[in-house]
Amino acid sequence: PVADDILLKREAWEAQLRADAGGASERVWIEKVDVSVTEPDDRDAAEAGEAIDAIRAAIREATNSEDVRRDLEVVFADLRSKLGSDLEDLREMGLPDLGVVGIGELLPDVEALLVAAMRDGEA
Question: What integer is the mean pLDDT of 30-57?
Answer without folding.
Answer: 76
